[in-house]
Amino acid sequence: MLNLLKNKLYSVISLTVLLLSVMFPAHALFVSPPKEPLPLIHEIFPQATLVSEKEGDPLIWTIYENDEIIGYAFETNDIARIPAYSGEPVNMLVAISPKGVYLGAKVLEHHEPIILAGIPESKLHNFTDQYDESLKVSDRLKVGGNKRDGITHIDGLSGATVTVMVMNVAITKAATKVARSLGIISKSETIKQPIATVLPEVYEPSTWQTLVGDGSIRRLYLDRKTVDEAFVGTEAEHIEEATTEQKNDMFADIYFAQVDIPNIGRNLLGDSEYQWLKDTLQPNEHAVIILGNGYSFKGSGYVRGGIFDRIQVLQNETAIAFRDLDHTRVNDILIDGAPVFKEMALFIVRSHHEFNPGTTWQLELLVRRQIGAIDSTFTSFKGSYDTLDKYVYRPPYIAPEPELTLTQQVWEDKSLEVTILFILLAILLVVLFLQDIIVRHPTFMHNFRHLFLIVTVVFIGWSWGGQLSIVNVFTFLQAFMSDFSWDLFLLDPVIFILWGAAAVTMILWGRAVYCGWLCPFGALQELINVFARYIKIPQFELPWAVHERLWAIKYLILLALFGLSMESLATAEQFAEIEPFKTTFLLKFDREWPFIIYAVGLLVINIFNRKFFCRYLCPLGAALSTSNSIRLFSWLRRRPECGQPCKTCAKECEIQAINPDGVINMRECHYCLDCQVTYFNEEKCPPLKKLARKKNQFKENQIEVVDVG
């Protein structure tokens, strides 16, 4: 009879594994073969006529349409190999335009267990499809999380948060490195100067020589030799070239200044014209005066409604061009000692340019030479301007907050969950340390435990995805045997903290605490079984001889998976689907039907037999139980009578973790403390009841002493 029952159970397990291996669609169970990048490049660039070899540092493909470069493509593994959840990076093909705009991203290869056997690859491709022309390489991109200024948010992938966050970092890091190497973007400033304020009261009558001498007015002087040298090597090298005698002649002599500064504007324009200028300027607008001889900074080709194409103001990465509405002709300057200028003009820098009077700016003069009836070529010359300290108030420099690493971002976004989890763990530790007191109050103890299990299921399991898995163990072992890095494990704060809690409690009390209190699937099973018992559903318990032999199954499963992981971690991850954790909590039953049937089947069995999966099939429980030999404390109390003759606790232990001789098997115990409630209950524990009867008999037989004095 026992052998028959044992064979049937083995048949059920074998059939389950077979269903998952054979009936489950191949796209979800097996690793997709690596994709060739070139067809995907042509898919992103259908107009491409030539794709170069992958070359350079960093390695990139250059894509051409005829002779024009229309984009660049690269693999993230060549530039930013960042391990994802599986410990291996997700390799992606990324394409950007010559202007630094994302044109596409495609997954070439991955080893992610959640995606391999949980989420169809179409959802993974939907995530990478977000890297399109709406995003720039210079954008700060973040997957989900708390919204912040200056950050563009992209949608994550439910059930694979860590994976897509790593993918985002790999894409943006690689794209930034490529764009910088190509000169598409420059390195960002490490320190930012807040907008300075022009001081309105700083003024003293000054001469032209004084303002030029102290740098209030700056000069850009060009002789013809300097201009000719700038065109050497161009098609216009000998066009309009100066003779030897003309080389030292003046080509352009330009003076420029920020004229809305009172000491400059009032001295140059006079009080009434300066006041007119101040009344004209809108908030955050500024004015520049340009005075010139020689080469015209306005140009003869300027037309009304157009742009002054020979001058612009440069500040940081902003180029400010001027239109006719920004321009006012200056008829005269009133300062003593000024030269006579052929051209004098005011130009308004509008507020949308966010011009900062406290930061260095340049006046750029463009010199153009015709090389045909239509074509021309040009070169430019720059003069730098630094506003004197006495003219402006500069707020202190702001050093931007260093950009958080991916790990820091994840922990910051999960700060609420981390805080709550630490509080829960602290409460659990208090209960464990005070267990001898708490178990003397059975009603409170049972209500507290059921409430804690509900929190474990709802928050740790379904809300936070904090279900440990045997896959975590294999990933740790693989990392330990290769290039170990804590970053891989810190990417999921809840999982990391739970593993830390499991490690601490295993050393102190063995595997029992995690399995009995912190495992979401174990908690879900227990709550279902508690309700089933409450509504009087009959329970089925296996005979002890069968029960203790079935314990071996989970250890055999653990050994098999461990052996597979040594050969191929990806294969071990696939067969680790013997755990229903991913289906139940990470994907919330949103996956293919064989997995749903398997997980639901285990929960249905649990209605009649508490924690069937935990007792007989769980490879994680088997792995954790190996720590039993190193646990430091044995706080579960027993009496000499336990087992012989008293078997009350053994009968009440709903997972049958108490041997017939009364010894608690800590490899199988889940630390529910029910046996300790009975141990201290004088109305339930037979040895205590017997002791109480003896005390009562002693009191009844006690002879009262009579005082006859």
TrEMBL record:
GO terms (BP aspect): positive regulation of DNA-templated transcription
NCBIfam families: TransRegNosR
Bilayer-spanning residue ranges: 418-439, 451-477, 489-509, 552-572, 593-609
Superkingdom classification of source: Bacteria
Entry keyword annotation includes DNA-binding: no
GO molecular function: DNA binding; FMN binding
Cell compartment(s), UniProt: Cell membrane
A single GO cellular-component term on record: plasma membrane
Stored InterPro entries: 4Fe4S_Fe-S-bd, FMN-bd, NosR, NosR_regulator
Matches recorded under PANTHER family: ELECTRON TRANSPORT PROTEIN, ELECTRON TRANSPORT PROTEIN YCCM-RELATED
Taxon lineage: Bacteria, Pseudomonadati, Pseudomonadota, Gammaproteobacteria, Alteromonadales
Keywords: Cell membrane, Membrane, Transmembrane, Transmembrane helix
Domain FMN-binding stretches: 84-178
Pfam name, any one: Fer4_5
Main location per the UniProt record: membrane
SUPFAM superfamilies to which the protein is assigned, alphabetical: 4Fe-4S ferredoxins
Native source species: Thalassotalea piscium
Name this protein carries in UniProt: NosR/NirI family nitrous oxide reductase transcriptional regulator
